[in-house]
Amino acid sequence: MAPSNNHFAAIRAKKRKADAANPKPKADPTAAVVARAEPKPLRKKEQRVGNLDWKNIVLPSEFGFDEDGGLLELDEVEGVDVVYADGKVSFQVREQDEEDGAIKPPKAKKQKKSKALPVVEEDESPFPAEDLSVFETEEQLEEPAAEEESVLEETKEEPAAPAPEKKAKKAKGKKRAEETPVAAPEAVEEDFDVERDLPNWSTFPLASPLYRALAELKFDKPTAIQERSLSVEIGATPFVEPPYVSKPEDEAEEEAEEEWGGIAEDDSAATAATTSAEPYVSVFPEEPAPSTEPISTDRDVVGVAQTGSGKTLAYGLPILSYILSHPPTPSTVGEPVTRLAALILAPTRELALQVRAAISEVAIRTNALLPDELQDPNKNAPRKRVRGQHVSVVALTGGMSVEKQKRQLSRGADILVATPGRLWDLIGEDDSLARQIKNIKFLVIDEADRMIENGHFAELESIVRLTRRKGEEDEEDEYVDDFTTAVSSASKVDTLESRPDMRTFVFSATMSKDLQRNLKKRGRRYKPGQPEDGMSSLDDLLLKLDFRDPDPEIIDLSPEGGLVDTLKECKVECMLPEKDVHLYHFLLRYPGRTIVFLSSIDGIRRLHPLLVLLGLNIVQLHSGMQQRARLKSLDRFKSSDNAILLATDVAARGLDIPSVSHVVHYQLPRSADVYVHRSGRTARAGKEGLALQLVAPEEKQMQRLLMASLGKDVDLPELPADYSILDALKQRIELAKKIESGQHKATKEAHDDNWLRQAAEAMEIDVDSDMDLSDGENSGNKNSRKKKKSKQANVTRMRAELQALLDKPLMMRGISGKYITTRGRVGFVDQLVEGTGHSTILGIEASTALEDLPKAKKRPSKK
Ligand SMILES: Nc1ncnc2c1ncn2[C@@H]1O[C@H](COP(=O)(O)OP(=O)(O)OP(=O)(O)O)[C@@H](O)[C@H]1O
């Protein structure tokens, strides 16, 4: 109901009455004069666009790849005049507010020094709903905003945003939060107790905020690789053996068994501090902790474990734990804070972004949630966190804005996740980045074996070189390639010492036993660039890593053959040209998130339009696509339960997309490792999944070799096909192929015509009379226009025909479209009544591929 005029009149009368009761203090006329006299003349200074105070806009999707909801980069800048003069554009900022290119806000009140880590800016928070306005007023909060600003000032003298801007942003952030459903972190009990609430993690001496984060993520217990590697990386009750034990092996084993579970009776005796920060808990409590040579948990780890087993946190947790318990402090007054603690190198852009997201996901949850009374009363709104103490994780990958990455770096990062190419480019431009890398505490090489394959070996080698200690390099310097020499001598960082206590973690799902053995031989001298016989480039790279640990711990939990236990494999044998129809059948018959791997980009370019015409929810991912399109594809794939991703091996490694039900190998990969990684996109984190191979007769030999190298002595079960509908599917595919070819020709002709026309125009030639290019009424090319029109009409007709076929339900043999009978297919009526039938194929039960899978047959042994 609209309010009436009387209603407003009543409100006005009420207000007049209230004003009369509480008269406002009259404005002091002299104050006005003073105020008018105050403003300084507004001088402006021109600034380069890269030096403006760009601010990143809050990202709507919490941890997705495409964090800007489709826009890869969205920054804003305020207080800048864009001036057009003499055909040039310049950017002007007020001079009294500008310092070092940034707009300086009113100085924040200096607070007592906080031990909190430097904060990322409010707009970098993955929790867009953080309403920080309450912070200025609520005394009970642990981390008042002003205090954080003092940390900022202290560390980088980076100014906080001026108050009015801040307010506007908060409002914006709030609005966005209301619009965008964000996975709200679930509150963890106020009286959270690690021993009681998270017993499986409590044996690991992690920084305490991490337990809360793990509880919020509902990661109740560590995965096997996490358990094994954490016990080496940070020390814990199980698995740790004191290095000074000189007893026979079986005796030691006996003792270990007695103490198993091992919680020593006397905890204090069991705790041997290795470094002051990282307590070591021995399983042998009666052994006194050595005082002169403490047991080191500063171990280096090479971890090999199946796909989807949680390797990211196996190395991410010790890093976060270290950062949270070692807040950066400036060493000397005036010196910049050395903040970068870890460098994680990943082979692909998508993987680097995903690793950043996975670590940030934990990092952000190390912040406490606001108390209930300060939460938004709107129940659907995401819960908010106390601002501050964010650990900043920055991704440096190709295909994204360099300027933005530089700005993120300049704000300070605790963890860098990078692809080698982009990182090396940035190091080349910025000596301070190289210096920071020399000082990192953790170097991680993720998916090590893939890293060397993707064309950035030189960069990777050079980055690794930065982390080597001096003595380790000297002998090799004469072998350093020109590229490395040029960059490092130009940057003059070569003279700096790299950190003596840096720790190295190398992780992958596949790593040959030979390689693991080679790592053990690292002590030997070797000449770079001259790999020894039988050494792969990966051996070469890993031997170049300067493990500080004389005996890096190798944890190999990879199952026989490398595939996950929860993965079921099967095959469909068919002729090469039939692969499309079998794929289409599988996709229709077994809906669910599916990745189809092809060996070539051309294959994807052919198949993609076909499946689109058939009405499937298809996206593609390959290296021929722009980065932005690649990330968008992944986002689209993740956002639908029934999407299909056609991909090359660029998507084979590391991508952690939740609930992928099937992986289809449209063509088999040539190496067993790639097969393992591809298949590992499904059956992750303990879930079941299915890998289907489409095998043509000419591929059978290769398939056999592949299976043999995976140690499989069974014939994969053949997934049954519903032959009665294959004909109908074939008909659809044939038609779709014709349409695609018709469309392709038309586009190509139009393109060629256009090109010719443009070329002719450039040469001032009249083409209409000689060539088939005219649309003009009087040209003599009516025939050709007619042809074109008829081709177009043909495509239109075929499209309508295909639509009619797609609209017609697919029916199993024996099912009548006219009469509902129980003949032919027993139970069809029941299915209709109970709704248990398949959604697109009438007459069959809705079942999963895993349910339909026959048992694998043992291959007859060769005589
Ligand atoms: N302790 C845990 N409990 C439950 N889930 C976990 C745990 N740790 C990690 N996960 C989840 O398991 C999934 C797989 O983790 P991750 O991507 O680290 O696997 P991975 O071993 O690196 O796989 P790949 O070899 O394919 O790269 C992720 O979705 C992650 O959130």
UniProtKB/TrEMBL annotation:
Keyword annotations of the record: ATP-binding, Helicase, Hydrolase, Nucleotide-binding, RNA-binding, rRNA processing
Domain DEAD-box RNA helicase Q: 199-227
Boundaries of every Helicase C-terminal domain copy: 582-727
PROSITE patterns: DEAD_ATP_HELICASE, HELICASE_ATP_BIND_1, HELICASE_CTER, Q_MOTIF
Biased composition (Low complexity): 20-32
GO molecular function: ATP binding; hydrolase activity; RNA binding; RNA helicase activity
InterPro entries: DEAD/DEAH_box_helicase_dom, Helicase_ATP-bd, Helicase_C-like, P-loop_NTPase, RNA-helicase_DEAD-box_CS, RNA_helicase_DEAD_Q_motif
GO biological process per UniProt: rRNA processing
Family: Belongs to the DEAD box helicase family.
Name of protein: ATP-dependent RNA helicase
Organism whose genome encodes this protein: Leucosporidium creatinivorum
